[in-house]
């Protein structure tokens, strides 16, 4: 069994391979174009930012839920045994800051 191809078959193969090569070169040209490279880089950065923002949101949400659980009961009412001491501490710190700023002005 020999591989005897006619000149027309060989020519058709050459034409087909040239077309395939042209398509491949066009694809390489698009991939290597600076706008494509920049667009891909921007997409990767945006994806990373979205992931980071998502993680930050989850972390903040967990922190807020943890604080809420400490100061609010299961029924939604504030836990006065925890809220009152913190409120007094905040009032004391604000008072000290106010006194400190008055002394600096005088």
Please describe what this structure looks like:
There is one protein chain. This protein has a domain at 78-106. The protein is mostly helical and 106 residues long. 0% of the residues are buried. The N and C termini lie far apart (110 Å). The protein has helices at residues 7-32, 34-71, 80-105. The longest helix is centred in the middle third of the chain and has 38 residues, at 34-71. The mean pLDDT is 92. The radius of gyration is 35 Å and the shape is elongated.
Short key terms for the protein model shown above:
106 residues; mainly alpha; 3 helices; 0% strand
Largest sheet: none
Q: What is the terminal-to-terminal distance?
A: 110 Å
Share of β-strand residues: under 5%
Number of strands: 0
Indicate the low-confidence ranges by residue numbers: none
Helix proportion of residues, in percent? over 70%
- Identify the overall geometry: elongated
Order of helices and strands: HHH
Structural class, by secondary structure, is mainly alpha
């Amino acid at each position: 069994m020999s591989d005897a191809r006619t000149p027309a078959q060989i020519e058709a193969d050459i034409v087909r391979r040239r077309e395939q090569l042209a398509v491949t070169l066009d694809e390489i040209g698009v991939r290597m174009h600076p706008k494509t490279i920049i667009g891909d880089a921007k997409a990767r950065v945006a994806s990373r930012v979205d992931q980071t923002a998502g993680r930050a949101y989850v972390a903040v949400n967990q922190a807020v839920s943890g604080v809420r659980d400490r100061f609010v009961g299961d029924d939604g009412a504030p836990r006065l045994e925890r809220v009152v001491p913190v409120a007094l501490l905040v009032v004391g710190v604000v008072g000290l800051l106010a006194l400190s700023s008055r002394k600096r002005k005088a």
